[in-house]
Design a protein that fits this description.
Oligomer: single chain
CATH topology of the largest domain: Rossmann fold
Helix content: 40-55%
CATH class of the largest domain: Alpha Beta
Number of helices: 17
Order of helices and strands: HEHEHEHEHEHEHEHEHHHHHHHHH
Bound molecules: nicotinamide-adenine-dinucleotide, SN-glycerol-3-phosphate
Shape: globular
CATH architecture of the largest domain: 3-Layer(aba) Sandwich
Low-confidence stretches: 353-358
Number of domains: 2
Length: 373
């Protein structure tokens, strides 16, 4: 096949010329996302908590702890001073662990421009409050919804740092703001779409981590592709039900931020959630697994708050419940899946995503609102 017909996407750099952005957090995703923004033509300053990390990025254009072997763009600036990172930045991307976000927000508040937009790249929920990151942002800084956004998708950092092509979704209640973010975050190897479904985009990223833990666990046990396919498929149904009852659009969960991210995270040995699950499936305890992991595996922290919300909202999540039992040590990893939790007195319909809309979701929403007969 001739390659002559493949369109080459150009123009990213010129349309972002002079656009100042900040990235807060210089772990694997913050550093990779800063590279995407640089390659899109933005003027990027990356904030690192540790001065030695900021110094290595600024001087050597490397982040050897989180992205070994990756050369970062010459144009990327790095600092450990928040004031310097945030100066003149209209878009502020947040790539810190979910459990530290609230404190990080309070730390950056004095340096934020009144018109700046905060964009969460974080895929977890706050354990103490069960809030999503956009809710934490609104709660901590009392921001207008048009200043709160999310970017999420099948985004394994190391692959993107190697410029392997993928996509993501920028989501904000204000479509114009989502478009501004998507323009800033579109490089030749990274396409960013837009939507206004912040809840769905955010929950896709949170919930796929829980299903990836389940996949890791059964992988560690030694189960094969049938088991994993059943967990991924039923996992997507659990993700969709939870999200829609929480206010998301069904379609978002079938998109890059839902199914797309679920596939990437469940398939990739580079996924930290998948890896953490595999260690647990191999017999390591939760504590031992935490010790072995050098990086954030958000799913482990999200299991409990997500199940708390599910119970409040009347949603049954058999796979996520099994993950919690395995993490707690009350279920053997080999019993995760067999097969998919409940033995019904009467066999149940699969209730796949092919049954959307008024029927199933309407009933769930009515139940949530207490209006069902
Ligand atoms: N790595 C990926 O492929 C990827 C992709 C998409 C989204 N995410 C999400 O991005 C978020 C960050 O993940 P990551 O992969 O960069 O994690 P990481 O483990 O690679 O890095 C975590 C970073 O947070 C910093 N940190 C730790 N405590 C902090 C604190 N109190 N204040 C500020 N910074 C602190 C660490 O120094 C480090 O720079 C997570 O929610 C993750 O789910 C990650
Ligand atoms: O490494 P994980 O499991 O945190 O997943 C990384 C990204 O969220 C994949 O999109």
């Amino acid at each position: 096949m001739s390659t002559a017909s493949i369109p080459v996407v150009t123009g990213h750099r010129s349309r972002n010329r002079g656009r100042k952005v900040a990235v807060i957090g210089s772990g694997s995703w913050g550093t990779t996302f800063a590279k995407v923004l640089c390659d899109a033509g933005c003027e990027v300053t990356l904030w690192a908590r540790r001065p030695e990390v900021a110094n290595e990025i600024q001087v050597a254009k490397r982040n050897s702890q989180y992205l070994p072997g990756i050369n970062l763009p010459k144009s990327l600036k790095a600092t450990s001073e928040l004031a310097e990172a945030l100066s003149g930045a209209r878009l502020v991307f947040l790539a810190v662990p979910s459990q530290t976000l609230r404190q990080n927000l309070l730390d950056i508040e004095p340096y934020l421009d009144r018109r700046s937009v905060l964009v969460s790249l974080v895929k977890g929920v706050e354990k103490s409050t069960t809030m999503r990151m956009s809710e934490v942002m609104a709660d901590a800084l009392d921001l207008d919804p048009a200043r709160i956004a999310v970017v999420s998708g099948p985004n394994i950092a190391l692959e993107i740092a190697k410029e392997q092509p993928t996509g993501a979704v920028a989501s904000c209640a204000d479509l114009g703001v989502a478009q501004e973010i998507a323009m800033a975050a579109s490089a030749p190897y990274f396409r960013t779409y837009v939507n206004t479904d912040v809840v769905g985009t955010e929950l896709g990223g949170v919930l796929k981590n829980l299903i990836a833990l389940a996949i890791g666990i059964v992988d560690g046990v030694g189960y094969g592709e049938n088991t994993k396919a059943a967990i991924i498929t039923r996992g997507l149904a659990e993700m969709t039900e939870f999200s829609v009852v929480s206010g998301a659009d069904t379609a978002t969960l079938s998109g890059l931020a839902g199914l797309g991210d679920l596939i990437a995270t469940c398939q990739s040995p580079l996924s930290r959630n998948n890896t953490a699950g595999r260690l647990i499936g191999q017999g390591y305890t939760q504590e031992e697994t935490r010790e072995q992991m050098q990086q954030v595996a958000e799913g482990i922290t999200s299991v409990h708050p997500v199940l708390e919300l599910a119970r409040e909202r009347g949603i049954v999540m058999p796979i996520v419940e099994q993950v919690q039992m395995v993490l707690n040590g009350t279920m053997a990893p080999k019993n995760l899946g067999p097969h998919l939790a409940t033995e019904d007195a009467v066999p149940q319909p699969e209730l796949s995503l092919a049954e959307p809309g008024p029927g199933r979701w309407r009933r769930l929403l009515d139940r949530l609102k207490g209006t069902s007969a």
